[in-house]
Design a protein that fits this description.
The protein is 16% helix and 31% strand. By secondary structure, it is an alpha/beta fold.
Length: 185
């Protein structure tokens, strides 16, 4: 999860997983949040323990469809299951946990990147790091190429279903596809 979202979340204590020790250290300084370094393919949380999960800018970094589906399955597994209808129970009380998942979209024709449906889905994107000394940029920037799988319209929803989930709602926002997913069964 990006640091820009840490203080925007609900003001409750909840764990944040990342594969970056630096991000975990930053997150731990923003109480009441806790953080830990984890593998998105095998999350360290008990099954069925969360009412909600958020995955922003994570799944699209995995290089194969099988790994992306496995990551979504790991997220869904942490969600509280949907319960069968009981008398006097509203739909909202028995819906189970939900996950909000954001991934980069291939369809970004109007963005600065300009990608569209005819472009490659698996790409390396330059990430520029400016060297800073005394809060000033200095020297030549360091460029890291980061892998991205750019999702086509409908592809995230298919991955959620193939991971054993159900799609509650989905859409497009600011060059990203997003979906709210629930756990089936």
């Amino acid at each position: 999860m990006s640091t820009k979202f840490i203080n925007k979340l609900l003001p409750i204590s909840h764990p944040q997983d990342t594969n970056s020790e630096n991000l975990a250290n930053i997150a731990s300084k923003h109480q009441p949040h806790s953080s830990l370094v984890a593998d998105n393919l095998s999350l360290p949380h008990p099954s069925s323990c969360f009412a909600f999960a958020i995955s922003i800018a994570v799944v699209h970094h995995l290089s194969t469809r099988a790994r992306r589906v496995q990551a979504i399955r790991a997220i869904l597994d942490t969600l509280q299951p949907r319960f069968e209808s009981e008398q006097g129970q509203s739909e909202n009380e028995r819906t189970g946990g939900k996950a909000l998942i954001y991934v980069w979209a291939l369809e970004q024709r109007n963005s600065r990147r300009g990608w569209n449906e005819t472009d490659e889905q698996d790409i390396m994107v330059p990430w520029v790091m400016q060297s800073k000394t005394d809060n000033r940029s200095s020297g030549t920037p360091t460029i890291f190429n980061r892998y991205y799988h750019l999702y086509r319209q409908g592809e995230l929803e298919k991955d959620i279903v193939d991971a054993g989930g159900s799609v509650v709602e989905s859409g497009y926002e600011k060059d990203n596809w997003w979906a709210i997913a629930g756990r089936c069964g």
